[in-house]
Design a protein that fits this description.
- Helix content is 31%, strand content 20%.
- By secondary structure, it is of the alpha/beta class.
- It has 13 helices and 22 strands.
- β9 and β10 form a beta hairpin.
- Strands 6-5-4-3-2-1-22 form a seven-stranded mixed β-sheet.
- It has two domains: 259 residues, Metallo-beta-lactamase, Chain A, CATH 3.60.15.10; 176 residues, Rossmann fold (3-Layer(aba) Sandwich).
- Bound molecules: zinc ion.
- The site of zinc ion has 4 residues, from loops.
């Protein structure tokens, strides 16, 4: 069994990994870089040369894990495309939206390569996508494959593959503890020959006394304080997963009397994923089987044009994408207006790329100055800026504990910035001295068993 990292760099970018075993080639994920535009956002599909994969297995519906799938599928029409049925439902919305965004950006950003794929290509991809069961082994292109629930977002799975008497487990993105909708990961207890591990939180030190409930109470209190001061709250938020979890939190706040009954503004894509989440409630296990986002939470869609004109008085909550505040999006349009006034607030609820406008605003904080990107330029930050930890990734200590308990002889660290990868390497090598813990350089093959 041989492993090759096909991401463009060791970072939180476009996930894509090649596993060769028993004469078969399997690809794990085929993402696109969340912050880079154009063909640079693709993983290193060129390293596949002429021989495409026999199958591609997709861990979950975030674009950094499946955003380049239509490009791959078009280039290699023979490759089987497999994922959980929850991820397939999400992929439909995610990839069609991505095609629409690229069609718009072609002229806006002068990117003649765009769109990298069309709506027709997405439809063709979805037609040939095969939904795999979760928790039960099936044959995929001659390789025994089992998906395991990974928490993180609805439909997310880790991927176990086995051939030639060798096995590999790819975690994908994982959260071991439950959130409000999505329950925690149910990962295998057996030991694979190699584990491929996501390291998103490897550089984030956990607070020993942290609790979700205490963080939620602080969040509710923060919103109330801003509203009492006559301001509104902007929450730049990823459309898939985080938006739905925060809406369930708001629903609980209202029920518990922590927030008054109110309506929440949502971005269009967040609202579209609400539909998918409600549909999946019938078939996927979750912590609140009877809760429905569209029925139980009052919300209203807001597009970037409306965001430029909407009334900021009267204690509004804007839960809108993009989470990175990419110029032109609703969160960017609102941030430009709101940072100028001390009565408003921007609350961050998860990971932001430090080099994105959202990351720069978060780092600058109230009283600082930040380059908001696009034609917004440098802004004086007068509004309240605060961060809340509602991450959908497991913390580094829990991840390390899991790996140490399973004790695979080889561990490959991926999907993290350099300090995160290095922390995880040091920690695991210290606690598993008999194992080999690697940060696989791009394009270099490793024999695993
Ligand atoms: Zn993810």
């Amino acid at each position: 069994m041989r492993f090759t990292n096909l991401t463009a760099r060791n970072e939180i970018g476009a996930n894509c990994y090649l596993v060769e075993t028993d004469g078969r080639r399997l690809l794990l994920d085929c993402g696109s870089h969340p912050r880079i535009e154009g063909t640079e956002a693709l993983p290193r599909l060129d390293l596949l040369a002429e021989r495409g994969p026999d199958a591609v297995l997709v861990s979950h519906g975030h674009l950094d894990h499946l955003g380049s799938l239509p490009v791959l599928a078009e280039r290699f029409p023979e490759a089987a495309v497999c994922m959980s049925h929850g991820t397939a439902a999400i992929a439909d919305r995610a990839l069609h939206n991505s095609a629409s965004v690229m069609i718009r950006q072609r002229s806006e950003l002068d990117l003649p390569d765009y769109p990298l794929f069309t709506h027709g290509q997405v439809d063709r991809l979805l037609e040939r996508t095969c939904a795999l069961p979760v928790g039960r082994g099936v044959d995929v292109a001659g390789v025994e494959t089992t998906l395991f629930e990974a928490g993180h977002v609805q439909g997310a799975t880790g991927v176990w593959i086995e051939a030639e008497g060798a096995s590999l487990f790819y975690t994908g993105d994982v959260k071991f503890s439950g959130m409000r909708i999505t329950r925690g990961a149910i990962f295998p207890d057996r030991t694979p020959d190699a584990m491929v591990l996501e390291c998103t939180r490897g550089n984030t030190q956990s607070q020993p006394d942290f609790s979700w409930d205490a963080e939620a109470a602080r969040f509710a209190r923060g919103i109330r304080e801003v509203h009492e001061g006559g301001g509104s709250v902007l929450i730049p938020c990823f459309a898939l997963g985080k938006t739905q979890e925060i809406l369930k939190l708001f629903h609980d706040f209202i029920r518990e009397g922590l927030l008054p009954k109110q309506r929440f503004y949502l971005g269009g894509l967040g609202a579209a994923y609400n539909e998918v989440y409600d549909d999946l409630a019938e078939t996927l296990p979750r912590l609140c089987p009877r809760f429905r986002l569209r029925r139980d939470v009052m919300s209203r869609r807001l597009n970037p044009r409306e965001a430029a004109a909407t009334d900021l008085d009267g204690g509004q909550v804007f839960l809108v994408s993009s989470g990175m505040m990419t110029p032109g999006t609703s969160s960017h349009v609102l941030a430009r207006r709101m940072v100028r006034e001390a009565r408003h607030a921007v609350f961050f609820v998860g990971y932001v790329d430090p080099e994105s406008p959202a990351g720069r605003l978060k780092t600058a904080g109230q009283g600082g100055r930040a380059d908001l990107g696009g034609d917004a330029g440098i802004a004086d930050i007068r509004c309240r800026i605060e961060s809340f930890d509602f991450t959908s990734h497991c913390n580094r200590e829990h991840m390390a504990d899991y790996v140490v308990r399973i004790a695979p002889p080889r561990v490959l660290l991926v999907h993290g910035d350099t300090p995160a990868l290095e922390w995880m390497q040091r920690e695991l090598q210290r606690r598993l001295p008999a194992s080999r813990v690697l940060i696989p350089p791009v394009g270099e093959g490793f024999d695993l068993a």
